[in-house]
Amino acid sequence: MVVERTVRRSLAGVMSTLVLSTMLAHPVAALTWEPPVGVAADTAAAWAPALAATGPQSATVIFRETVAGAPAIRVARTIDGGASWLAPVTISSPDAAAVTRATVAAFGQTVDAVWSQGADCFTGHCEIRYARSSDGGATFGRSVRLSSAKGMAGQASVARSGSTVVVAWTDAPSGKVLARVSTDGGTTFEEPVRLDATTNKQYPNGGAEAFPVLAWCGSDLVSAEMMTRTKLVARRSSDGGRTWTAPTTLAKNAAPGIAPSAACQGMNAVLAYGQQTSGVTWLAYRRSTDRGATWKPAAVLAPATAMAADAPVISAAGTTFLALFLRCTDAACTAGTGGEGATYLRSSTTGGATWSAPEQVASTPQVIHRPVGLGRVGSYLALFTSLDTTTWASSLESRRGS
Asked: How far does Cα 112 stand from its chain's mean position?
């Protein structure tokens, strides 16, 4: 499935699931989930990771929403652990013809937002914009352009450690995976660094998408990208994103339209991604115990069943890894034509070696719940898009678990 095409149809991804094999431990007991809280409606859409924790009870989320008939990138925040959300602020330019593919990262109260904005972010001009907040997402400075003024940029990823900010994205026409580094907290950025080039065609005009994902592992920065339609690689940088190691192949049968997700805690890293076997989509993960220098063999996060799995979201909080994913619950969802799908949660306190049994977070008849964010805000805070497949109306919702 092509992620951008499904989002454009409002079907914003379709799949995710359970675990077996080495998944016998239960690090986190079954949670009690409060009713969902609405964050945004009216054709709202989000791309993982769309949630960043800014404190024990505070978090920021980023999403696309139609405002007065025009598309806009919006940021909302909570200061009570997700019990309620403050009114969102618009951070994209008011004259933007198209905005999409937004993501966010945080380091304390500093929030970094990146998104795609242009005349046509599926077949024409589209650029990466960056904006920074120093007050937990309450206000943002003026955005700056990081990609070419004439090109078409794909999905971006942003990561911060102290005053170092790195943003990576794909130049769709050429397939080049590029990154820009800031060492002054996002005030200025150095010239783009080329990591590699992908042939993973994902756009209607033949543009390529690597779905780059960044994660800080201590002083090292890990990146993962789709280099072909089925080849997933990882590499790391020990100088803040200026130079990178040669890529390590993590999978040769990765699902072409599923963006990988990664998180680190200390020396440990976990990277989740989609796989396809005989037409069945499921989820796997690789883990590293040396900050991405080497990777353990692949293990199952959501096994292959008749119902497709999709949209992995990996997060790290304290000594715990958290994983959200979508599992289709009927054939229509699996086929991408409608139906329903549920979001599930798994956790690990063993660096990803063992995981709890899957726990259902959200499920509603004729609604596809696609996870886009997860964090330890309050106890647990899950963020997901809810697509009503009878009306094709979408909304963004959160749910607290304790």
From this structure: 14
Residue 80 DSSP label: S
**In terms of Cα–Cα distance, which of 191, 186, 193 is closest to 143?**
186
CB atoms within 10 A of CB 52: 28
Write down the pLDDT at residue 18: 28
How far apart CA 334 and CA 361 sit, in angstroms, is 19
What is the per-residue DSSP string for 40-72? E-SS-B--SS-EEE-SSS-EEEEEEEEETTEEE
Task: Tell me if 336 sits within 8 A of 342, measured CB to CB.
Answer: no
Domain with 152, as residue range(s), is 3-401
pLDDT in tens, 169-196: 999 999 999 999 999 999 999 999 999 9
DSSP letter string, 29-44: PPPPBPPPEEEE-SS-
Q: Within a 10 A sphere around the Cβ of 295, how many other Cβ atoms? A: 17
Strands in 110-118's sheet, in edge-to-edge order, are: 98-107, 110-118, 127-133, 144-145
- The CATH number given to whatever domain includes residue 206 is 2.120.10.10
Strand partners, 371: 384
Give how many domains the chain has, as a whole number.
1
CA distance 99 to 81: 28
Kind and range of the H or E run holding 396: strand 394-401
